[in-house]
Amino acid sequence: MSIVLLCGVLYGVMRAAMLIFTPANHRANRLLAALIAVLALYTAPYIIGFAGYYDACPWLSFAPYNLSLAVGPLVYLYFSAMGGVPVTGQRRRPFHLLPALLQLLYYSYLFVQPLAFKNNWDTEVHRPYVEPVETLGLMASLVAYAILAWRQYRQSDAMLKEWARNMLVAVGLTVTFWLALTAAEWAWSGLSYFQRFPFYLWLAILISYLGTEGYRHGAVAFPVPAPAAIVPAAPVPGATETGNLAELGARWRATITAERWWRDPELTLATLARRLGTNTTTLSRALNDGLGVSFTETINRMRVEAVIVALSQHHDQPVLDLAMAEGFNSKASFNRAFKLYTGSTPTEYRRQGPLATQVSTSG
């Protein structure tokens, strides 16, 4: 049993370490790595327990493995990081992890106490008083943050819909399993190590899954939330005139460039309009009538320009990888756009050098 759990946990932890060093989406990847680490720590007592280490080393009791109150907040914060919609009260985000910090301080303090003190505390205080409160808090936290993560997913323009949906399903099943285990603990006045094994086996599988899929999607560019200061609250008065449309289109194009929204392969006119705080009609007119280019032309030109810059910086990286990183979702669409706006194919461009062609700016 220890080996089975250890294999799943070690694999997930290895992937979490790789996530930390993934050169993209730093905040989101580190939050997911932290979630995997917390789940791995929570599983650790059962890995060493099934192997008999608690019997051989009783001083390991109250080791600070249990940071379960961080699970819900980390799930929610990860979804907010990859969702593409800013969460209100960003400065208050660290407070989501305050209960987990209190857990860490509590177990760390007890861990360094003499064994006789720990045994007495476990019998007289921890099991009858602290553990029930901690369990109720955990259940409330898991349910509340699962709902918040779901709402964040529903409200966002997440470009990784399938991965986000699958992760929500996995988290939902875990919360259900956890609730069932807690109910069984209370109904039968505690369960043995062996009776709890299926749940910890599930956690090991979950850790492996999060590590595998999280790393697979970790390098894909997530949407970047728009700062409130650059989102107009309402359409600019007089924007129906051609001059004002041109000014509005130029300003919105600058915002797209600054926020690098072209990197979202699922970006649509409707999605972009929501991010800019306008509607599709006004946005379409500002681009078509004001700038003389369509939404598709605007975004594809930005992507091609970004690929050209990347080609000059990453000489050995495959062209298609660079294209995918800048928002193109297929080789055919990339080749077609690159040829249209530069007059040469990507392979010809790289062979001839950066001065051979340049992106056309004409309509």
From TrEMBL:
Pfam families with a match to the protein in the record: HTH_18
Transmembrane segments: 6-24, 31-53, 65-85, 97-117, 129-151, 163-181
Gene3D superfamilies linked: Homeodomain-like
Origin: domain of life: Bacteria
Keyword Transmembrane helix attached: yes
The entry's keywords: DNA-binding, Membrane, Transcription, Transcription regulation, Transmembrane, Transmembrane helix
Residue span(s) of domain HTH araC/xylS-type: 252-352
PANTHER family, per database record: ARAC-FAMILY TRANSCRIPTIONAL REGULATOR (PTHR43280), HTH-TYPE TRANSCRIPTIONAL REGULATOR EXSA (PTHR43280:SF2)
Protein name: Helix-turn-helix domain-containing protein
